[in-house]
Each structure stands twice: as structure tokens, then as C-alpha cells.
Amino acid sequence: MLLSADIWVSALLRRVEQAGSFAYIARRGDRNYGAVLVKVLNLRSRDVYVLREAQKGETTVWMRPVETVTEADLDDWIARQVRYDSDLWVVEIEDAEGRHFLTEPVEL
Question: Which residue range is the domain that position 45 belongs to?
Fold first, then answer.
């Protein structure tokens, strides 16, 4: 991520809102260097998943670090990640189609 974390998160929130969906910052991390988790809730199916940025060779991709069983399990996993990385940002997106709105490559 070449942009500071706070600017990148602001851009993501704007993309979500422009598409008519809802997103919010569940946790603010370090404004310059914090990593970002994106939690996505599909409002129709109630499916939920999380994406985390990862390096794949020279390319940055977003991938699912865990398979989700329930939203509560996912929230527990996120809480453990926050305890491990105090600079971590958590953005939650609620969308009727379960879209993530990321412009970078995503591996689901």
C-alpha cells in the first residue's frame, strides 16, 4: 500500500458509500503504517468474510486469512489479530450483494 493507511481507508469508505452501501471504521490503527482488515457482511445471505492484504511475490493481493464459520468466530479472530498488532485497522462493510469494493486483486 503506497498511501498512508488513513487515506487508503477513507478512499475505501467513499467507494462503498458512492455505491449505496454502508461501511465504517470498527477500529483505527496507526494512521501511516497500520495494516487493514476488511470485514464484509452480505446482508441478503448473512454470509460474512474477512480480507487481509498480503504480498504474493511482487504483487499485493487481498485474501481470506481464515474460513468463516460464524460472525462471532470471525469477530474473535479479529480480536486476536488486534491484540497481536496494535496498529491494525478494521473496516466493516455491509452490502446487499456482499461486495468488498477493493480495487486491488482479491483471491476468494
Answer: 5-107
